[in-house]
Amino acid sequence: MKETQLTRRRRRSPWLILAVLCIAVLIVVIDNTIVNVALPTLSAKLNASDSGLQWIVDSYSLPFAGLLLAGGEISDRWGRRRVMQASLLSFALFSLVAAQSHSLTQLLTARALMGVSAAFIFPATLSLITASFDDLAARAKAFGIWGATAGVAIAVGPIAGGYLIDHFWFGSVFVVNVPVACLTIALAAFVVPESRSPVMRRVDLGGLFLGSVSVTTLVLGIIEGPSWGWLSARVLGLFAVSLVTLLLFARYERHLVDPMLDVRLFRRGAFSAAAGAIATSFFCLFGFVFLVTQYFQLVHDYTPLSAGVHTLPFALATIIATPIGAVVALRIGIRWVVSSGLVIMGAAMMWMTQFGAHAAYWGPVVISMMVLAVGFSFISSPSTSALMGSLTAAQIGAGAAVNETTRELGGTLGVAVVGSVFSSLFARRIAEVLGPLGLGHHGIEVAQRSMQAALRVVAMAGPAARSAATYEGLDQAFMDGFHRGCVVAAVAAIVVGVVTFFYLPGSAATPGHTIHPLAHFDAA
User: Fold this and answer.
1) I need a labelling partner for 487 at 20 to 30 A (CA). Which of 34, 142, 344, 513 fits?
2) pLDDT class of 491 with cuts at 50, 70, 90
3) Reported pTM
4) Which residues of 209-248 are buried (b: 16+ CB within 10 A; e: fewer)?
């Protein structure tokens, strides 16, 4: 029987399709961390406080997380390749706007629009991968490569950002997105077949509004808690709005015939456990990256490039351990691998609480980073396989969005929570260190904004303030906040690791082992 055009296209190059999609993944994910190494520079150039630095990171990941479900729906409806290409173009344009920022407001606006664009890129890549691979083993390997790409992008971001900051201006960390996005658009036009869901559903505007409001108000309250006061009316009001809109979202979605997010899926222990494991791993990772890039530059006094290079062992460990985790999960089951990965991450974060301000890099610092990378690598790919494999063909777009929403929401909350825990204790310790030096209330208040601000205040103070003891006190204030943030992340990872063990499948097999007959490519 003569092969159809559809059969030839599917058989021709699923791995080549994967390679192009991984470039799209790379550009979207790397922007989550490439900016971290630039935070001290941005703090100085744009006069950003600790909360401002948190917003530089979260202004990208927050709309990214909030619109992923809509991104999955729209790419299913309009065509996954088409939506991905259009979104890559807008991503490149807003990157140029971010590169020319002259104020914190302009940068945050551009970063938010980049996050909106990214929300329509990522679900399309995962949906296209799912549609490209019919065989369970091949699909699991593809998810492993996809997960490794995302993990490596997170780890390589600080290195690339450090090089660009050292050799160019801060805007170069955004300009670099443009040629990569254009290359991906061109390659996708020749390599990636169009794909869409045959089941056309309406865009759930009500669910999108309620879900976005809930996440945004929660993150806003967490980030601004240290400066506004955790018990202030504004912060408590934001938390109340977040809780109410979350409950309304769940109720609204539950009563729709065709919801954007079928919240009933979370009644399944395996589905919820996989989503929770992914969110927690990114919670820990993003919180750690947010702090460690500043630790290297502001405490160890590394240049931006040196700070990025010092994260290279994390990247190497991720490259090696991610495919190993995927293979081991196929052999012994997802439960053991994912739960172990979370506990390992928690142990690594707890180990970091023992670092002093000037701990040897070639010793506890680098070893703990590599242990953290191993734990992280054991979680993403197996959890993604479990989550995506449980879906029907019509659900893969929404499922891809749910999968990535957990990542981005976990990362967003990681920066918000760990960063706010750090800021709360750091500000208190700075007041204790600088209070006796007679710098005045205003000087101390400025110093509490960030480590960069504290160093500037002391540098402009009198000779008595610029003593070794003062600088040692600033370093210790930073480390106290660093340690407290690590404790929070460690406890979260260990608790979730223990809980997920009882809900994740003991076998590697999932309902997704059969061909998705409806997750088709267009013949044209």
Assistant:
1) 34
2) very high
3) 0.79
4) ebbbbbbbbbbbbbbbbbbbeeeeeebeebbebbeebbeb
